[in-house]
């Protein structure tokens, strides 16, 4: 089957609302490349959106999945429990920031984890309001659409949305003159005046925004909000679904902000490529929910749990947090060199192996240029480099290589990227 014939079948069979970045179809994939059904190799700067941090079909993951699938595939943890679920919760409790006592619960997707974190925060505080940020992305279910900022394509005509969600300004250093504490004070003032501190169950924030544009808030922003939340009797939920599991150069990005979140949501990199998500947090908050109040048929599926444990072992064994730092060290100077020659790049930003460039119309107005961004990304694809865009204005080109990507593959990817910028006319 060629990509072309698969694409024809897809158009007849698959709902068009589900779209793909490229129209080549995958045959197999490894630690740094995908091979399509036409035999063409792609350098992977997407990692399935920050999922395959350990690479595709990582050896330990394959072995663990094979062993688990032979023992049992599903009993439902709510019906007949099993050890690997507990193992994953213990790992989450140990690896997330903070040495206080924690509990975890497992789910299937990031959106489901965020929904449950909101349920837990509301239950534990007895309050309704959830504070979220400009450019935030938290998922596509009804509640998480309400939490997500961007209308197209995530929310358009999918409402009405859940209530008691309040959006405040993000710290966005490129487009914002405020430092972190001042940006936090601006947000806090809005919360106090327009929501009321006593009504706030949780402040929900991505320590580095994902789909919203890889926005890295100024230092002191997240910690300022956490300090305020603690004083106000509210919960800080860090959505580390994209930033977690070594992606930014540590197990979690909150560490770089000096923040020990009350609740953390995880998914993407957690499952070693299988669907698994978690909510981890302070025991006092997690224990508040009545017995039976949380769950789901598939949450913490044993095969996904086995894959997660093998993935975490791989991250430890190969020091993948250090690998993310090495990727940053290799890529950032190259990206800065491109930016120096190309006035369309307003900023190179990110942390670890979560890097991006924001593309604007030259001239100092910082006018977003989604057309050039799409053109550069398309040129990368023509060159065999799989890149993604993001951002409220679609003008951010982001890079999320698997953390196991060989240096030589990364180097080839960077050369394709340089060529792509050079080939797209100004
Ligand atoms: C991807 C993502 C989600 C949603 O996860 P799904 O598994 O797609 O439901 C939520 N929050 C952040 C920060 C994400 O990057």
Give the overall silhouette: globular
What is the C-level CATH assignment of the largest domain? Alpha Beta
Largest sheet strand order? 4-10-9-8-7-5-6
Count of alpha and pi helical runs: 13
Order of helices and strands: HEEEHHHEHEHEHEHEEEHHHEEEHEEEH
Number of domains: 2
The CATH architecture of the largest domain comes to 3-Layer(aba) Sandwich
Tell me what portion of residues adopts beta-strand conformation.
15-25%
Distance between the termini: 39 Å
In which range does the helix fraction lie?
Answer: 25-40%
Q: Residue-averaged pLDDT, rounded?
A: 98
In the CATH hierarchy, the third-tier topology of the largest domain is known as Aspartate Aminotransferase, domain 2
CATH superfamily of the largest domain: Type I PLP-dependent aspartate aminotransferase-like (Major domain)
In this entry the ligands are: pyridoxal-5'-phosphate
List segments where confidence is low: pLDDT < 50 over at least 5 consecutive residues: none
The computed structural class is alpha/beta
Alpha carbon gyration radius = 21 Å
Largest sheet data: 7 strands, mixed
